[in-house]
């Protein structure tokens, strides 16, 4: 059995407050690793496999081409002012270092602004006029979400590029973010079945991105970027850091390290080498948040408990110890074998050796099997290597984790978000 428990750098992060689904988080550099690509690196064509969900448009390389070929509504700034009641505070859904998100209303057919309470509800992200980085991320969202269509990706309805104003208009997600439901004070606990449903939906979204003919790496997978509709179907939001994956025989792309502390993969932080396996690591961290009800990083906890991966990992491969890290808000109402299976999947996803992590398609298949009640009567051991797939297998390991030494912390800027009332 391989050992996935080698030393990795531990990074610090300020505790995040709950935020609206389309929360505008500040995208902060995770290290001082220099980028070997220009910040406006070229984007390859996003031609996806034939399926109901699609992305058939070629990815343009210039801003003019992106905006003209996106199939999105180009809103006037005045229209969005009207749709959000002039961006009044009572329309505010969330905020962060990247900007603010407001609730608005538009006509379902014409997409013209409508009176509050009538028409279709939308979420309007208004970026702070902070120069190139904010504009770059705005354009990246238009580029990808203007082409990618999948039931587990948030729908981008349109954009606004009016003078210095940069805005994005999304479908409204009434249940807010997964982060809100897991961590916001006073929130009703999510039952086990809903947690599994959210994990599966998010896995479908990531698998869709990774399995594209021209792969997309999400790069900012976390609880606050998983939005929930009225039926708790999960959708990925905020594509400002999305990156085209490696092509040809390349195993990674080299880029400036960006993302969120606690979720970023250790090899990416250390080297700036990005692959889809970095998303897999982040997915494993979110699985841990679903299991434990704890944040990826929480400075209010003592010692090793501040870092969820460091604290939970020694318990994940041991059926007799797993209960010690399970979310107490579940009240013990969860299938023990199912919980142990998810713990093993999470353990494989957060393996420090990226090559030992599974593909998202493999993770998705195993999670989907857990929806079958019969599974919970069977052995909880999960070894994705034994699954039959049409995609190449990645080696997997399941092994109890000893405590491991912690590397030096990487200082990062912080961000804050508004709570939803």
Gross morphology:
globular
Give the C-alpha Rg: 21 Å
What name goes with the CATH superfamily of the largest domain?
A: Transferase(Phosphotransferase) domain 1
Element order: H for helix, E for strand: EHEHEEEHEEHHEEEEEEHEHHHH
Extract low-pLDDT stretches: 5-19, 21-26, 31-60, 377-383, 385-421
Biased composition (Low complexity): 21-42
Family: Belongs to the protein kinase superfamily.
Binding site for ATP: 126
Keywords: ATP-binding, Kinase, Nucleotide-binding, Plant defense, Serine/threonine-protein kinase, Transferase
Architecture overview:
The protein has about 425 residues and is α+β, with helices and mostly antiparallel strands. The chain has two domains: about 45-170, Phosphorylase Kinase, domain 1 (2-Layer Sandwich), CATH 3.30.200.20; about 180-385, Transferase(Phosphotransferase), domain 1 (Orthogonal Bundle), CATH 1.10.510. It has ten helices and 14 strands. It has helices at about 65-70, 75-85, 130-145, 180-185, 190-210, 265-270, 275-290, 310-315, 335-350, 360-370; strands at about 30, 75, 90-95, 100-105, 120-125, 155-160, 165-170, 215, 225-230, 235, 245, 255, 260, 275. Helix 5 packs antiparallel against helix 7 (about 275-290) and helix 7 packs antiparallel against helix 9. The longest helix has 19 residues, at about 190-210. The model is unreliable at about 5-20, about 20-25, about 30-60, about 375-385 and about 385-420 (pLDDT under 50).
